[in-house]
Prior knowledge:
The protein has a domain of 150 residues: MetI-like fold (Orthogonal Bundle), CATH 1.10.3720.10. The chain has 15 helices and no strands. It is mostly helical.
Amino acid sequence: MPDPAGVPPQPAEGPPRRPLASRLASLAAGSTMRVVLAVLAVVWLLPTAGLFASSFRDARDIASSGWWEVLTDLDQLTWSNYDALLANDNFTGSIGTTVAITVPSTLLVVVLGSLAAYAFAWLDFPGRDGWFLLVVALLVVPVQVALIPVARLFNTLGIFETTLGVVLFHSAFGLPFAIFLLRNFFADIPRELLEAARLDGAGEIRLFLRVVLPLGGPAIAALAIFQFMWVWNDMLIALIFADNGSPPMTIALQQEMRQFGSNFDVLAPGAFLTMIIPLAIFFAFQRQFVTGVMAGAVK
């Protein structure tokens, strides 16, 4: 019914409709979603638990029954597998080789990628956008394309089948992703903050060290975890470019499989030791990892 003034009544407006992302976030915070995520986490960790249990079982027990048998028969557990593994000079030497490859490859990518990302984000130089597009284009170049040309180049330089060659290869192919990730994060830093630091007399190096790096900590941590896991678990590059006399752990395990075939009592603890270190690093820095990956996703 119109009111006496002749103005028709307006329909009552309800609360504004929430965006889909907001409704999904509310659902994720509920108890039901937490239970679902907990179940998924348990399922995801089952292979790790199985490998852990198998690493303490005798080779005959591994071949005859599943790892879950230890839940009802704890007498199957033994330290002899790890004793035999640590007595294997080939594997113990591979641990040092893996560290010697992974740590420099991660540090080089983080340092050089941070410097290049800062330049692409905040410095003006000729062809900046074109060079950045070239870096982005390098993200889609598969590693397999460069194996033969880089092998010939390293052979000419005398660094083929050396730790240095493996480090350089991993660093070169890790830099495009590092620059892309960090440049997008650094570009979100407020310009006013950088201008205030410049007015206080800070040069570009000091500005990078005192302002950009502390603010970019989450993204740098995420990058370091990505690079560390990729290099630590790599087998293809190590198989081609590493020294056969001192291979990393992935190749050492592969050599054990080729030589003995079914020595599960060595392969199980070796595989678990190879996996547990990057897994521990991920869980130790998971908060920084998630923050860095999600950086720039919400404007």
